[in-house]
Amino acid sequence: MFKIFGSSSAVNKKKQKDKEYAFLASVISILVGLLIAILLLFLLEFAKAESDYSKPLIGMRNYFTYSFTSATTFSKIFYNAAPLMLTGLAVGFAFKAGLFNIGATGQYTFGAFFALIAAILWQFPWWAALLVSIVAGAFWGVIPGIFKAFFNINEVITSIMLNWAGLYLVNLLFYNLPKIHTVLPNRTDNLAFTNPKAILPDFGLNQIFNTSFINIGIIIAIIVAVIIYIVLEKTVFGFEIKSCGLNKNASIYAGIKAKRTIILTMLISGGLAGLGGGIVYLAGTVQYTIESSLLSMGFSGIPVALLAYSHPLAIIATSVFIGFLESSGSGLQGLYSYEMTGVILSVIIYFSAFALIVSHFIKKVLKRKGQSDGDQGDGPVIEAVKPETDKPKEQLETKGVVG
Amino acid sequence: MDNYIIEMNNIRKEFPGVVANDDVTLKLKKGEIHALLGENGAGKSTLMSILFGLYIPDKGEIRKNGEVVNIKNPNDANDLGIGMVHQHFKLVEVFTVLENIILGAEPTKFGFLTTKETRKKVIDLSEKFNLKVDIDAKIEDISVGMQQRVEILKMLYRENEILIFDEPTAVLTPQEIDELMKIMKNLIKEGKSILFISHKLNEIMSVSDRVTVLRKGKGIGTVNVKDTNINQLSEMMVGRKIKGIEKEKNASTGEIILKVEDLVVPSKLHKNNAVNNVSFEVKAGEILCIAGIEGNGQSELVYGLTGLEKISSGKVTLLEKDITHKSIRERNLSGISHIPEDRHKYGLVLDYKLEDNLALKKYFQEGFQNHGFINEDMFRKHSERLIKAYDIRSGRGSTTLARSMSGGNQQKAIIAREIDCDSKLLIAVQPTRGLDVGAIENIHRTLIAERNKNKAVLLVSLELDEVLDISDRILVMYNGKIVAELNPDETSYQEIGLFMIGAKIQDKFKEAEVEESV
Asked: Which of B16, B227, B235 sits opposite A396 (nearest CB)?
């Protein structure tokens, strides 16, 4: 309702302020999430017969220190962050074009599986296998884009359906390609034995630090994030994407081919998610197993993007943060069940998504405070209202005034 | 003092960066129509929103019948008997008229809706105030004029005694405006008091008793309408004298710029064609105006010409080049500039900066981009040049978000962008819609200047004044067809009106009609 009466304002100051609010809101959301998580743990203790109220505190302490206890746990932050960053970018990039790519998980699965096919079946080196994962993800991502562009079918619906279609297609392919699972019936062969050169390079760091979770995945992800940032902010293509996202009609009016933009956006978005899948499964630490439910990595990209307001560089930070939360989950092991770790993580992520609401709230509070502080509002007053200088006009006014 | 029903004393309201109302005083007498006059961005809507409880003033007091009242939200305003008809109606499209009227104040019995008595009350009200509405029709099916009457009934149903009309005539046809004026006078007779926001001087002169003028957030003064005249009011509103447009005729028209042959554009709303076998030409050095009541195919005609919508058949030739099946960008580049009718939907990317919006038709050209990378310096230079040349005012120059600019300046930005493309054909659809006197005058001058530069101008307008003022040739559209071609010097308001409502068709357009209906 207020929008109708919107008035002009000092935009840049406002923009700066908005950015501050956004950051503050993200931080507050995270803190609230943590607080709720702790409360939840206390509640759990309260419900037990033998309550041990030190347990939640120890748990939380472990949770936050765990990642810094060894090179393995520390490197796991980035090991987790790399695919999160890529799926986050996939979701965020589509958001910029006004599309909600909820199908990142399907594209991720596709990318993952084809990377493994390339690595095991075709004996590709790691970089070529990663390229295959991009192509596979892009293929699965462009389908909803095509449907959206040509038949105006909502991309959310098609991509949700394609998530499942993708998963089962991959499973089907898995069973029909016995060469990729020669050892176990439902698990792909270990890359270390089948094709070591398909494993992402670590420059010997894994040996030095005695771990297996260091690889160049995080570096690739960061480079990709920077590239996406440049594409969005500095190129004509990015200008068109954002324009379509902000106002499709005006973009078409200006001669931008909106259909082409939608398709390309989904192609790139899918490629990013696919690359995320490739990076995980080419690390050499996990094998693809037959899945009966959607992989969560694709969905985790959504909070990563939301928390970062879809800004590619901010996604670097938020993905590392969520990567940290995920890898820290192991710190609760022994004290709490695996499920409980999941609950805590979800609570934090859930509240992170409230960042937007919180940011509005902050604005409101600051405004109120500003007003009571003496009519200054929350923005500086610029010289929008210039004093009238025409003398004759004032005579006219006084003459015309009634009562 | 005693007979003021509402007093707003020394109201001040600031938004970040802007003082929207600065020490404004407005006093409404009981039983009067009080006009609030000012250009766009003068603070009229803000002041009324304060009275209606949408904004809280930073300073100042509101009194009702001499007592200070505190209006914190629209409910408070409603309790005080203040009702508002917004410029953009607030109606539920799929509900019936009756349902909309009782919405929010539904009479219930044991939790069930009881509409019987309400229905009678609403019918009584509509008869008493002569507000003709079809009580069981859905909002989406009724005319804009009737929707407005529904809004008025909503206020009456809530027994409001102070009625605020925010630019009520902006969306109405001439006939509907006359009707509204009658309704307003009726309401006064029944003891209501009306605040009437407008920037149309004729209406204010014809209907209101007193008028308060705002300019740039300041109260300029309150005058009795019978003691003033249009010139004085416009001077108070704009702050300078308004010169009428001197309409010098352009004697010579040049070559044919745009040729349209048997154009058919399908409608998105119904099965019939929105544009049905339309043929015409626009020549260099003329302003051809397409007049007609809204929804008679003018918008679709323009969409068809600019490529925003696919055409079913026909041929469009621009500068002897067939552009019938060309893309929008190809059309733009071959010489079409388009000032769209809906500047928020088509004209601007509201969340883009002004400089980005100004580059919207050029960003892909060499200089603006280099190997696919945007040349930000060029964007800025381009934007600074246009801002200066077209006097586009905004809080932060090139980096202002289009959304935060005033309507007039948004339109200036679009016009600057389109005219800067230096196209041979300029299509302007209702370029002055919702703008104030100063801005309208400015746009008319610009259009005439373009014509004088030997450009072809195709103007689509609903405002008859505009049509008669600046066009060189008039085509009237009715029901998807052209029904008349008129010379503005030889026709009259009444004559155009008859063609517009389909009461008359010129002979030379009749044949097509017969063929079509067979």
From this structure: B235
